[in-house]
Amino acid sequence: MSRLSARFSILLLSCCMLDLRGADKAMEFTFSEPAKKTYQLLVPENTRSTDPVPQWLSVADSESTFNNHAFGSTVILGLPPGMRVNPIIEGTGLKHARKFAPGVHYLSATNALAAAMAAQQLAGRDDVHFCHPDYRF
Predict the structure, then answer these.
(1) What mean pLDDT do residues 5-29 have?
(2) E strand or H helix at 106, and its extent?
(3) Contact 93, 118 (CB under 8 A)
(4) pLDDT band at residue 34 under the 50/70/90 scheme
(5) Which DSSP helix (H) or strand (E) runs through 19?
(6) Which of 2, 88, 120, 122 has the highest CB neighbour count under 10 A?
(7) Which residues pair with 25 in a beta bridge?
(8) Residue 75: phi, psi to the nearest 5?
(9) Nearest CA to 130 among 67, 90, 120, 97?
């Protein structure tokens, strides 16, 4: 095989592997910040909530003021004073990372998709003041 053929084969194989990865898809999530707010987050096509990556999901909505933002794998949860966090997060897959202030807790998830899914679930509860993944600019 000539050097040119070998290089072409490697290029062709690389292109095929990129195609197998799949494109990002927009998924809708609603969080409470404390007001309800809905975002379109870009999720790689083959990602599951149990995958170790990605740690950040970009906001897809180009008209949003958050279009250059990304949501991460940490969830910020606000509860009424004195309410215990462990019964609230049971079954969500989240782990208590630390207490930030009275009623405010940082929770860790496997990845950003798991964080978004759990935050949306918790944000729908009446006894939760606010719940959303952390975000970066």
Answers:
(1) 52
(2) strand 104-108
(3) yes
(4) confident
(5) helix 3-21
(6) 122
(7) 43
(8) -110, 135
(9) 120
- What does pTM read for this prediction? 0.76
CA angle 63, 121, 22 (to 5 degrees): 55
d(CA 106, CA 30): 18
Helices (H), the chain: 3-21, 86-89, 112-123
Tally of residues, the chain: 137
d(CA 54, CA 67): 18
Beta bridge partners of 72: 56
Contact indicator for 108, 119 with CB cutoff of 8 Å = no
Gap between the Cα atoms of 22 and 74, Å rounded:
25
CA proximity to 132, closest of 24, 30, 10: 30
Residue 41 structure tokens: 């987050």
Q: Is the pLDDT of residue 21 over 90?
A: no
